[in-house]
Amino acid sequence: MTWTLDHIQLAIPSGGEAAARAFWIGLIGMTEVPKPAAIAGRGGLWVTRGAINLHLGVETPFSPARKAHPCLSVDDLDGIASALTAAGHPVDWDDKIEGVRRFFVADPFGNRIEIMQGPAPL
To answer: For residue 10, what are the β-bridge partners?
Structure first.
């Protein structure tokens, strides 16, 4: 049996779609995909890039994920770090895993996001 990860969902507050688009599409470089009509009225948005599917769903009351987090593996870690920093999203570099370049950043709502270059050792 083959398994794959279909998507990850992060919560955003009501009305946070514009800030989510600016972060995930404008800075991270993902693309928005239409939500199915049956759930489009719930708010939020879906974004994708390559094999990554991220669903940003409205949660009320909202509470950011400060520990649990997705990790994106990218090919231009320094470019994304520069774009995030220039846009007011400071990155926190972490060298605790030998041979892995990575940082943590908070999305506009305080959700923790890890971004790394290359595959992590299992």
So the answer is: 56
User: How does pLDDT run across 52-86, given as a tens digit for each residue?
Assistant: 999 999 999 999 999 999 999 999 999 999 999 99
pTM, to two decimals: 0.93
Q: Which residues span the domain enclosing 81? A: 8-117
Burial of 88 (0-12, 13-18, 19+ CB in 10 A): exposed
CATH number of residue 103's parent domain? 3.10.180.10
% residues pLDDT > 90 (the chain): 92
Q: Is the residue at 24 inside a domain?
A: yes
* Buried b / exposed e along 41-72 (16+ C-beta atoms within 10 A): eebbbbbeeeebbbbbebbeeeebbeeebbeb
CA 67/CA 6 separation, integer angstroms: 21
The answer to whether residue 22 sits within a structural domain is yes
Is 1 within a domain? no
